[in-house]
């Protein structure tokens, strides 16, 4: 009986080990493309993102991942307005974010890292130096486990995730196939790689005569194009690191409004308006928008005002709070600088 119990136990353990191994490989096959997409947009190594996802979800099997599509254990915080779920982590029944799609979780993780000041130094590292990134995450307090950096590095090297740091979103599926050659027999995977080969041809459509209105159709097409263009514009925005202490900011590629940017980066409209000292909700092409509060001083001593610039333009250019900039230059609120005027950015302007 003991021998039988021992045999069954070994079989169960063997099966469990194999399942864990397969699960982690399957996680990589499914989510590597998301990690590479995020690397292109936010300059976070794909190997780091993927290793964190593997670790946080237990290879995609955690309750948060399965029920909440939350792959990085991001908690609600005060600025989250989306769906939530309760889960016991550091304390009982903590509030965690819930996403409609894992891709949203991946982007939220990127935004989380790129918009918080204590992770700013990470973005000065070589994007292909996964060891430095792993160590930097631990130093910045991302996790409490003292072995967090070595665990991430272990995952990256075990599964050769560093290979994804050297690919692009257009080539990532080929990189996955090279890593897992047996996927050539997986129709679902190959359909992503060669959709024209695996997609069934649609039957000829049934033609129905409908009264045609040129004006309504044109208006509808314009609306579709506007929505498509807006989505493409928002997707093209990259978070940048400002020379003034690494402040996170973006440059608006086309005219839009503050609501669209707030939704994109999951920051309240009121905060964006306050941080950027905006008087309305309209944003114009090439406007600079900060995703965190600006500093009280610049990173260079002075600047000569150019034609057409006002003090708000200069405050945005150098990442300085507008009221501080007025005070440093002994100017009244709303007063405009003259062309060539020396604007003080760090110290206060000397009295005449």
Automatic annotation (TrEMBL):
Keywords linked to the UniProt accession: Antimicrobial, Bacteriolytic enzyme, Hydrolase, Signal
Domain LysM: 247-291, 301-345
Gene Ontology BP terms: defense response to bacterium; killing of cells of another organism
Protein name: Peptidoglycan hydrolase
Extent of the signal sequence: 1-22
Superkingdom in the source lineage: Bacteria
A single MF term (Gene Ontology): amidase activity
Gene3D superfamilies xref list: 1.10.530.10
InterPro entries: Glycosyl_Hydrolase_73, LysM, LysM_dom_sf, MGlyc_endo_b_GlcNAc-like_dom
């Amino acid at each position: 009986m003991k021998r039988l119990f021992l045999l069954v136990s070994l079989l169960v353990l063997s099966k469990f080990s194999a399942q864990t191994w397969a699960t982690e490989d399957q996680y990589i096959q499914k989510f590597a493309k998301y990690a590479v997409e995020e690397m292109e947009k936010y300059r976070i190594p794909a190997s780091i993102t993927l290793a964190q996802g593997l670790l946080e979800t237990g290879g995609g099997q955690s309750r948060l991942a399965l029920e909440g599509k939350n792959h990085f254990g991001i908690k609600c915080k005060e600025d989250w307005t989306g769906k939530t779920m309760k889960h016991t982590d550091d304390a009982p029944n903590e509030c965690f974010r819930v996403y409609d799609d894992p891709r949203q979780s991946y982007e939220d993780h990127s935004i989380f890292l790129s918009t918080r000041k204590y992770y700013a130094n990470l973005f000065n590292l070589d994007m292909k130096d996964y060891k430095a990134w792993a160590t930097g995450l631990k130093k910045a307090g991302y996790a409490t486990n003292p072995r967090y950096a070595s665990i991430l590095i272990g995952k990256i090297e075990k599964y050769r995730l560093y290979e994804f740091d050297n690919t692009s979103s257009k080539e990532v599926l080929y990189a996955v196939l090279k890593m897992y050659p047996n996927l050539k027999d997986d129709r679902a995977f190959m359909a992503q790689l060669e959709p024209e080969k695996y997609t069934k041809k649609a039957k000829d459509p049934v033609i129905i005569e409908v009264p045609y209105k040129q004006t309504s159709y044109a208006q509808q097409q314009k609306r579709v194009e506007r929505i498509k263009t807006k989505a493409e514009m928002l997707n093209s925005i990259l978070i940048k690191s400002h020379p003034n202490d690494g402040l996170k900011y973006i440059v608006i590629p086309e005219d839009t409004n503050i609501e669209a940017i707030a939704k994109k980066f999951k920051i309240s409209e009121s905060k964006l308006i306050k941080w950027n000292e905006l008087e309305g909700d309209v944003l114009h092409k090439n406007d600079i928008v900060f995703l965190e509060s600006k500093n009280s001083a610049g990173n260079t001593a002075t600047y000569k005002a150019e034609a057409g610039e006002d003090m708000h333009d200069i405050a945005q250019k150098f990442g300085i709070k507008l009221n501080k900039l007025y005070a440093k230059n002994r100017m009244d609120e709303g007063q405009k600088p003259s062309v060539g005027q020396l604007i003080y950015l760090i110290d206060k302007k000397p009295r005449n």
